[in-house]
Amino acid sequence: MCPPEYFGVVYEINPWMHREVVVDRDRAQAQWDDLVAVLRSAGAEVEVLPPHPDLPDLVFTANAGIVNGDQFVPARFRHPERQGETPYDIEWFAANGYRIDELPADVHHEGAGDALPFNGVLVSGYRFRSDAASHADLSRVTGAAVRSVELVDERLYHLDLTFCPLDDRRAIVAPMGWDRYARRVLNALVPEALVLDDADALAFTANSVVVGSTVVMPGCPPAVGRRLEAWGFDVAVCDVSEFLKAGGGCRCLTLALDVDLHPHSVLGA
Questions:
Q1: What is the reported pLDDT for 130?
Q2: Which residues are annotated as catalytic?
Q3: Quick one: which of 181, 193, 233, 238 is 20 to 30 A from 85 by CA?
């Protein structure tokens, strides 16, 4: 995670971002601190990436790249506004003992924002921020089987706004964000799906972090909470409204470091 010391909406690269919107940095810091505290209380260890004054979106560490055991595959950001983040991400991972393996320079892929492990495969989104062509390279570099999902709603521009793996069988899903073929792929892949309606999807309900049996969410509609509790999960709601101004929720603010892209990999924060 990266503190929001320099976070702000200073450019527009998704439909949620409007430069006239002012971020309350004190409130953003308090919300970030609360999220860190909730994750730690759920059992996560939180490592911190130092912020940078020229990189307001560095706070959204989910997009930094893909973690696979001791391997780190840096993102290839589509927008120039975020491309400056990559050297700092690489520096942190290299300093912490990770092997750096890069994707080709001619493809775009935005890390764990567009790729999440589920039941032995890597589900990866494409269209708005990542290229379909990147998936073959991602599979080659990581050794993981990749299932491609085409995203169709520009408001749900990353996979992690539409898909939240809970364990090897269950996931929170927002089918409104996928094309027809992607819906068939994920229907076949996910044995038990908690399907969000459009309003809950656009409230970033799927952009949640799973730590053991705790689901940390930006908001929890009653029906969603009842289903999660019936499945044995505890729900923790964290207000991240300042970050929603830039189109980011709880998962966007985190990058899981305990991912191993083999069957039955463990998900966490």
A1: 98
A2: 158, 252
A3: 238
